[in-house]
Amino acid sequence: MGLQHLLPSTILSLLCVNILFITESQAQLGNSAVINISPTLSNAAAASTMDSSFLGYSLEHNAVPNFAKSQIMVNLMNIWKSKTGVLPSVRIGGAAMDKTTYVPNFRTQPVMWVATPASEYWVGPSYFTLVKNYFPSDTRITFGLNLVNSTGNWSNSVQFAVEAKKNIPQVDLFEIGNEPDLYVGSNQRKKGWTGKEYAEEWKFVANRVKEVLPNAQFQPAVFASSLKDGFDLSSLIAAGINRNQYNIPSYSLHFYPQSACSSIPNLNNLVDHSLLGQLLQKFNPEIAAAESSGSRFTLAESNSVSCSGFNGVSDTFASALWLVDYALTAATKNIERIYFHNGPTTPYSLFIPRAASGLKAGIRPISFGVYFLAEALALPAQGSTTKFLVSPLSVPDDQSDIVVYGLYSNKVQKPDLDVIGTTTFVYTTAIPTTRAIVHTDKSQTLISVSTKMIIRSVSTSTRSSTSTRIVTVTKSTNTTKRTTVRMTSTTTRSSVSSGKTTIWRVTLVSTKTTTVTVPTTTQSRSTSRTVITSLSRSTFWTSQRTTITKTVERATPLLSTSYTTYTTNRAVTSTNTKATIKPQPTDIGDFPMNDGIFLARAVILNLSPHNTSDARVLSCRSCAGPSPAGYGSTGERSSTSVTLKGFQPNHRLKLIRLRGPGLNAKSGITVSGIIFNEDTGTLKNTAVPESVNVDKTGAVGFRISASEAVLLVDEKVV
Ligand SMILES: *[C@@H]1O[C@H](CO)[C@@H](O)[C@H](O)[C@H]1NC(C)=O
Ligand SMILES: *[C@@H]1O[C@H](CO)[C@@H](O)[C@H](O)[C@H]1NC(C)=O
Ligand SMILES: *[C@@H]1O[C@H](CO)[C@@H](O)[C@H](O)[C@H]1NC(C)=O
Ligand SMILES: *[C@@H]1O[C@H](CO)[C@@H](O)[C@H](O)[C@H]1NC(C)=O
């Protein structure tokens, strides 16, 4: 689903849901911006997937022989593929498609211009061989057919289509007619010929092509985007040019933000982000129409300035920054692809294939923008099936020159928040491998699926327990005590006198002190406390499944399928450099701990204009002339300190810069140090990225100069 289906108010609320906003930029900090990007994409369905072959090259039929005499185009295409895994698509036709006649017995050369009876291009059979042999076999080619010349009910265009499809295996789509919305203005059709008449003619030709090639796929419209007189996609779809009737993977319109035919192109306007947004708005109903009929919307011819480009604008570093901003904005609108138009010597060409018209072969500044985009879309690993979702962006009011795009991996994954320690594990894992081998007449597909157990994390915990015991001890003792004892003795005496007997009883009382022994019992209580400390370690495992699909071209036709499954036991050593202790929630704030669609990359553009006055970089080897002198910006080149929050805490990011001496520069441009070989279009070296650390709150800081682009890559989000 594309954003353009939604009402403006819904888009606003979506922007908030995706939380890509810039909180503030405080004046007292000078040039600084604090930017919050949502670490995860909560509404992945609302974001657009950016195609790995987002970039395409567009050429005129008659220019193909010039391009094919040099390896530069194929080498540039292969650099893109080495990063993204897919070749850029190629569209061949342009305005020349409506001047082309297929001449089966014309054998002297692939294409020739003839002046009489009418100015046209003759194309012979060797044209097909040339196209087939020049482009790699996995190139997808869109091939243009003549709609203007209706002689014999367009039988020549139908024959051209049939022969092209038969002889060029890379042909994928057909276009029929270039910019038909301009036919009346250029006297190719009579006044009053509208989108309605176009639709009838298009269907007539497409039906005849379909009779011979039932599986033919078409890319209709090909409008110059005037969007008048019924030349719009809703009208076309209503007129029957739709998926119900034809194989239509995509509709194409053309876009140039400036024109060299009707005004004087302006370098500053090229890097004006809000102007770009306004210009692209007119495509919203067209994108919606294409999608609602089940097709995609493509800009199959585009560049900075229409009518071949403009020296001093199209061939400057400004065009590289523009290309990056334009591609990412278009991707957020769910535009499928942009094909950049090239002529053998035109000012807007991305490169000059070989010396001609006083120009030398070479790589133009805009191609550095293409390389930067390839780094932004680079696969996290070879064979990876990851695609990147591009989140809508927003520009802060007071930092309107800073533009930010978030690229999210479409794979739902766990956050990786482990922070401390290094541990090496050796374990044995069973790796079941199923290999399906399908032999077909053309190609062989190998699919291998492997599963391995990997350690996600190890956590160590310490537990203490305390126990208390009370013991009672009983003790007996004898104590001695002194005591006084009273003793009595009684004696009886008698005497006789006078016949009377008297009897006395005498009682003697005496006291005596003595020592006695007294037994005693005492009880005593004693408390004992024991502390037991135990250490435990738990290991969390996760299984990782890898599917690798490989297609190999076969020479000999074969038709059979076989599967083998086997399991091997392997000892695996894994060093977990970020390991054992989970950060405290207080450290990482509200960073999500759950599985999600995580931020993998961010592109930040500082589009504040800066010009150089260094005359040495105002010209380029393949440029027609230097940028005018005397436009150097005064004062030091400004830079902005950016704090960007949304990456995973404690990760280390790769930082890649698209740099040039100034917007007006034509040389001295690089992407983290890369240098092109201007004779071949290959790279002389590889990029040397900087690296920056994300702090424990998920924030990363870096500086970005005026007129510069930065790409941040978290290689752990795959
Ligand atoms: C139109 O096509 C016919 C062949 O069908 C060709 O002979 C003629 O020259 C073409 N006219 C123009 C103006 O290209
Ligand atoms: C062109 O097509 C129309 C409609 O199908 C048909 O009537 C006419 O005979 C055709 N003319 C030629 C030259 O094939
Ligand atoms: C205390 O005295 C008694 C009687 O003489 C004797 O049996 C006992 O063992 C004595 N106890 C101690 C702890 O001396
Ligand atoms: C940069 O230089 C170009 C000429 O190359 C000029 O048109 C443009 O206005 C200059 N821009 C700024 C911001 O100085």
UniProtKB/TrEMBL annotation:
Query: Which controlled-vocabulary keywords does the entry list?
Result: Signal
The record's section on InterPro entries has: GH (IPR017853), GH79_Enzymes (IPR052974), GlcAase_C (IPR031728)
State if Heme is listed as a keyword.
no
Q: Where is the signal peptide?
A: 1-27
Residue ranges occupied by any Beta-glucuronidase C-terminal domain in the UniProt entry = 599-711
Q: Which Pfam families match?
A: Glyco_hydro_79C (PF16862)
Q: What is the recorded name of this protein?
A: Beta-glucuronidase C-terminal domain-containing protein
